[in-house]
Amino acid sequence: MGLDIRNERQMLAATGFTKEQFGALAEAFGQVYEEDKKEKYDRACESGRRKRKSGGGRKSKLPTHQDKLEFILCYLKTCPTLDMLAVMFHLTTSAAYRHVHHLLGILHKTLEQLGVFPHRHFATPEEMKQALQGIDEIIIDVVERNHRRPVDNELQKDMYSGKKNDTQ
Fold this sequence. Notes:
There is one protein chain. This protein is mainly alpha-helical. It has a domain at 8-114. 56% of the residues lie in helices and 0% in strands. It contains seven helices and no strands. The protein has helices spanning 8-15, 19-47, 65-78, 82-88, 93-114, 125-131, 153-159. Helix 2 crosses helix 3 (65-78) and helix 2 crosses helix 5 (93-114).
């Protein structure tokens, strides 16, 4: 039982995807979800912890793969608190927490399999150049960090940022 999305504009506002894009992602997401579910089931059977057959137990308030994907994309796009997310999807706060942590991993695997997850770590500058080949402009968001002032006057000038004194 997901959100009551009525049109394309609401879909973009809630998930960041058009209905067509969402459908394509939902198919891949569902496959990865089922693979992960089977892997966990097999591990639980091997260890002797599994007491029910597959499909047993209580049913989720997010019954379909589309509902699960809508849930995690809404969380990532709108950044609601877990309490608000629970209200939006008719869950308890603890269930919302569990879903967020589980579904983030599934979405991560899905995006990696589709080859659209951004690469974040590079071993060498050449590896970074190769990954950025064909890209004309890069925007890097950084935060200036405090550090000890050098005693040498020339080094102090090189390190000067122009900001006023920090009172911390």
